[in-house]
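Review session, final week

We close the course with one last complete record, chosen because it touches almost every idea we covered. It is Biotin--[acetyl-CoA-carboxylase] ligase, a protein from Bifidobacterium amazonense with 290 residues. Go through it on your own first, then we will talk.
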Amino acid sequence: MPRTVAAVGGGVLLFDEIGSTNTMAREMVAAGRSVAVVAADRQTAGRGRLDHTWTSAPGESFTVSFVARAPRAIATDERVNGWLQMIAGLAALDAIRAAVCDANDGKLMLKWPNDLFCDGRKLGGILAEMVMSPAAFDVSADDADDDVALVFGIGINLDVPADRLPTAQATSLQLNYDLRGNAAADAADSGNAAVTDADTLRDRIAAGIAAGLRSRIAAFAADPRDQAATLLEETRQVCWTLGHEVEAHFTDGSTLRGEALALNADASLMIRTPDGKTHVVRTADVGVLA
Ligand code: BTN
């Protein structure tokens, strides 16, 4: 993954097969090993949000985890920390657009909190996890004890044909964009031979996400309150969930049906139930019904 190595300056690990890139990244961080990106061709124990499993087509999918550093005070502040996972979703949308279409493409959106959607179907998802130990970072730095590691595991269906998608509701980049035409155009620009395989696409997207995460998290850490307002506006523009009838599934097994009314300043979702009451949802699996 040459572009990714160039974007992060090292610490990129690529496995043929691994249990879960997120688990590996977390273990490495906890063990004090330096790592920026963990990628795999095949995951045997891929994990999704809320303890779901994550399945993906080997060699045709994006299964990559990114390790970022953020101030502990921000990562643990519930008034603003919901934006960290939104940042990952926005960085992923930017990187996918740059690789396969133009910046104004309206098909790529986020389903709250951070599913990647394309034309109303699930293209991918993000598992954001925090590792409190700062051991992976430079402990000689003055502020090392004040930071936490964030692991953003991103799964995307890249060059996956319809018959190899994980569910009937899923989609892939192959089914929506001319991947080969884009690669050819890119190759013509760079003067390199056109390579149309999923590896090249993965590298291009991973490099974009790594760069986007770095710049977005730096801006957020510098001024979280101001950035939260900016992110709120940006996320509203690409939030597939807003205005739709949704059903939120909570970890205790309860559900809530209603209209996804608004995003709040802390990145939570406001749902209005048929009785007219509004409910603030912070953590749930939110399915769009109509
Ligand atoms: C979700 O939609 O529930 C989130 C899916 C996250 C999947 C990715 S694939 C790379 C990384 N490794 C994992 O085990 N999970 C994430």
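Two points worth writing down before the exam:
Residues 2-237 form a domain with the BirA Bifunctional Protein; domain 2 fold (CATH 3.30.930.10).
The pocket of biotin is lined by residues 20-22, 43, 46-49, 52, 54, 63-65, 115, 125-127, 153-155 (CB under 6 Å).
Good luck, everyone.
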